[in-house]
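Final report, section 2: Outcomes. Of the targets proposed, Methyltransferase is the one most frequently requested by collaborating groups, and we therefore present its record in full.
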Amino acid sequence: MTSTDARAAATADRDLVVRLAFGSMAAQTLRAAVRLRVVELVGESTRSAVAVAADAGTAPQPMTRLLRALTALGLLEEHAPGTFSVTPAGALLHSGRPDSLTSFVGMFTEPTIVRAWEHLDDSVRTGEVAFDTVFGTDFFSHLARHPELSAGFNSAMSQAVAETAAVLPYAFDFGRFSRVTDVGGGDGTLLSAVLDAHPGLSGVVFDTEQGLAEAPKTLERHGLGERCSLLAGDFFRAVPGGSDLYLMKSILHDWTDEQAVTILTHCREVLPPGGRVLIVEPVLPEAVDPATRAEVSDGAITYLSDLNMLVNVGGRERTRQDFEEVCRRAGLTVTDVTPLADAEPFSLIEAEAD
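The predicted structure is given below as tokens.
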């Protein structure tokens, strides 16, 4: 390597670290844009920062600075000094869009979530959940005590599942089953998509009462009142019987291995002959893929999600071997693991009774 190449490599390395250090600032810039409804106020054409500021109730100069930061992040475009339009990526911050990510951004930049991250080093040292120490209770109990935060979490999870809901119904042979229970199914977005695509299938959304809060609206919107029921309960105590397919998306990663085994065991206990458990989660490689870059790749996000599980809820992202082990302990055998195309980084993990 020449001295010129060495200097270029050193500069690139430095730039990477600096960009990562500014990551939390970029996230809070998104949060401000959502809270001020910037994308809605700019609208579908070009608009001046002065006009946006007037509608948002802010001073013009700070609004201009915010809009320029959003432009630099790729969410807006500045056509002339002080005049902006929304990019396709920025449009996802419009709360009125069906594919909006406003609730998702709001939740993952929420001070309640971010505060535990300030103690990541403590969690790494001890293995303990930082959230529990900071707030004096676990994450889900905290949600139950704060209805507004719980509603925001439910909305964020609904937005987060939308991409998977568009793909999953066509990525798995649901036609060989008659009834599916979505364990921890929240507002029913994922199961509604599956039932819409498979008219011969009926279903159950199983979750806590707070998790099901918005589910009646979802089922009504999809016209599924006759084919899908809602059942409140605790999957650490039992899972309802009567289905031949048990679906879980982004559930097991919230919990420790012991807790994951408990949930899976309860599914195994009610699984009929020929029944299956379908787990939809990221599957980490046994070692980090060298192609994974540090900033915004799906691979990097999955590892950051793993740390989020550590500091906020105590769960973890898992490798195939990890999934095989927790399934084995629950009396299940993993028969197939398939990456979910167009919904990265998720995979379909299919398991049957031993």
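The chain has two domains: 3-96, 110-353.
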